[in-house]
Design goal:
Number of domains: 1
Helix content: 10-25%
Mean pLDDT: 92
Order of helices and strands: HEEEEEEEEEEHHEEEEHEEHHEEEE
Radius of gyration: 21 Å
Distance between the termini: 62 Å
Strand order of the largest sheet: 14-13-12-9-8-7-4-20
CATH superfamily: Penicillin V Acylase, Chain A
Low-confidence stretches: 1-9, 15-19
Number of strands: 20
CATH topology: Penicillin V Acylase, Chain A
């Protein structure tokens, strides 16, 4: 495939405005030790053609480059399930049979990849395909770090924006990968939260601006001859930022996640994770001016996904159907199954169940 043929397929995904594409990721743990990650994927410009992808062991793929499909060839050692956007190769969230989970998050203006060098094409992979390669070849975050050292990460178009990634393994260890000035940099993500720009290090430092916030209610305060008292419950979080910018979503996610009570098992934690992610659903209309709003989308949050890493299950719901669906990797024979890609929704309409009154 030549470069000019790639452009119509990729330009919408790669050149998108930072005002239109945003994601919020959180991490929870059940009281019995199950590790759960969740995230939204938000894009307001048009439908992402989202699909789930099942990749068997020994499946061969090749990376896109600015010159065509002539980058690194890679064969999956492990089977995995991914959620893809635009094209089946572009997996943005997934988990493999060994319990390694990964997610791609938009990262505009702060990252910078290497320039593509055709002489290195055999060890070069596009940012939109990095996650697929990692899920097929690694089982721990330490293996991810070692693997990334041996390759070159590029954009498929020189003017495209950048992304960053989070990786979590079955131990609960989580890393964030950012490519800055052409160099991969890993951060240990003890908090388990990720949004978009600025960089992860800045986002965690920024949390110190909210050191006064706490769960529950604020104490009464005497102001001269006047006593100030909270209007209602939750006043300890007064000042929590409520807008949709990545720094504000990062702060909200950190406090919502940390104040959530631990659930007894994985399934209860999965549903709790979806409940928390409700707070990051972006309605159509607030992300752009009135004359550019896409009225054909029911939501700017096109889908949300939660991964039970401990039990290798991935759950999702979409803007068309809020029913939570689950793919259990333990039920898949990755040695025998064939590659498949299926749309997330069979029907693009919210199911409504009537209640019959007798």
């Amino acid at each position: 495939m030549k470069k000019q043929l790639l452009l119509p397929l990729l330009v919408a995904m790669l050149m998108v405005s930072p005002h239109l594409f945003c994601c919020t990721g959180i991490t929870l743990q059940s009281s019995n030790g199950a590790h759960i990650t969740g995230r939204t994927i938000d894009w307001a410009e048009g439908e992402l053609n989202s699909m789930y992808v099942i990749v068997p062991r020994n499946y061969s793929q090749q990376s896109f480059t600015p010159e065509g499909v002539d980058g690194m060839r890679y064969i999956s050692q492990y089977g995995y399930v991914g959620l893809a956007v635009k094209m089946k190769e572009f997996i943005v969230e997934g988990v493999n049979e060994k319990g390694l989970s990964g997610g791609l998050f938009y990262f505009p203006k702060y990252g910078k990849y290497e320039r593509y060098n055709a002489a290195d094409c055999a060890r070069t992979i596009s940012d939109m395909q990095l996650l697929a390669w990692i899920l097929g070849s690694c089982k721990t975050v330490e293996e991810v770090k070692e693997s990334v050292k041996a390759i070159h990460i590029i954009a498929m178009e020189n003017n495209a924006s950048t992304v960053h990634w989070r990786f979590t393994d079955s131990s609960g260890m989580q890393l964030v990968l950012e490519v800055i000035n052409g160099k991969p940099i890993f951060y240990v993500n003890n908090l388990g939260v990720l949004t978009n720009a600025p960089g992860f290090d800045w986002q965690t430092t920024n949390l110190n601006n909210y050191v006064n916030l706490h769960p529950g209610s604020a104490a009464d305060q005497d102001l001269g001859n006047v006593t100030l008292a909270p209007f209602g419950a939750g006043s300890g979080m007064l000042g929590l930022p409520g807008d949709m910018t990545p720094p504000s979503r990062f702060v909200r996610a950190a406090f919502y996640q940390s104040s959530a009570p631990k659930q007894p098992n994985a399934l209860r934690t999965v549903t709790q994770c979806f409940q928390i992610l409700n707070n990051f659903q972006i309605p159509i209309g607030i992300e752009s001016t009135n004359n550019t709003t896409n009225v054909n989308l029911p939501s700017a949050t096109q889908w949300s996904a939660v991964t039970d890493i401990t039990n290798t299950k991935i759950y999702y719901r979409t803007m068309y159907n809020s029913t939570i669906r689950c793919i259990d990797l333990m039920e898949i024979d990755f040695e025998r199954i064939k590659f498949r890609a299926e749309p997330l929704d069979e029907q693009k309409e919210e199911p409504i169940v009537p209640i019959r009154i007798k």
